[in-house]
Amino acid sequence: MKGDIIVPLFFTMTNVLEKIKLLAEPLLEGSDMFIVNIKDKPTNNIKLFIDADLGLSISKSATLNKALSKAIEEEQLFPEGDFSLEVSSPGVDEPLTSTRQYKKNIGRKLLLELDEEVEKLGVLKEVSDTHVVLEIKGSKKKEATIEEVAFDLIKKATVQISF
């Protein structure tokens, strides 16, 4: 057709993941749940990692999964309907990514990686918008110390499981 311009419609997976995040956010309003991360795997397998201030139960995950799957279908993000959605917690070995996750873990032992050579291991005592406060266990001759660590110095933070 002369004069008509055909513009191809490209959806990158990044755009789809952002759209899924936008669909999920209103479903979380009024709850204690929050988004930690969203990833895609081959064959349109979407993994939404969420956490909750009061703990993430299987029923909370299942309810969100059902509502979000319905929203994705209604938006026709995958026109063939060919997708799978997994909603779960990030797992204990995943690093903390938000202030909210740090606050949830007050009282637990954290390993902070500050750079290639510096690590701090201690009990998380406080969290602010700019830093965390750790109580670092002393040796037999030395008392525990309190250290303030700015978020911009933390490369990675993981909760340490005690047995």
How would you describe the shape? elongated
Amount of helix: 10-25%
Strand proportion, as a percent range, falls in: 25-35%
Number of strands: 8
Radius of gyration: 21 Å
Helix-strand topology string: HEEHEHEEEEE
Q: Can you count the helices?
A: 3
As residue ranges, the low-confidence spans are: 5-10
**Which oligomerization state do the chains in this entry correspond to?**
single chain
Distance between the termini: 71 Å
| Main pleated sheet | 5 strands, antiparallel
Name the average pLDDT.
89
| Structural class assignment | alpha+beta
* Sheet with most strands: strand arrangement: 7-6-5-4-8
Walk me through the structure.
With 163 residues, the protein is of the alpha+beta class. It contains three helices and eight strands; from the N terminus they run αββαβαβββββ. It has a five-stranded antiparallel beta sheet. A hairpin with a 3-residue loop joins β5 and β6. α1 crosses α2. The longest helix has 18 residues. About 4% of the residues have low confidence.
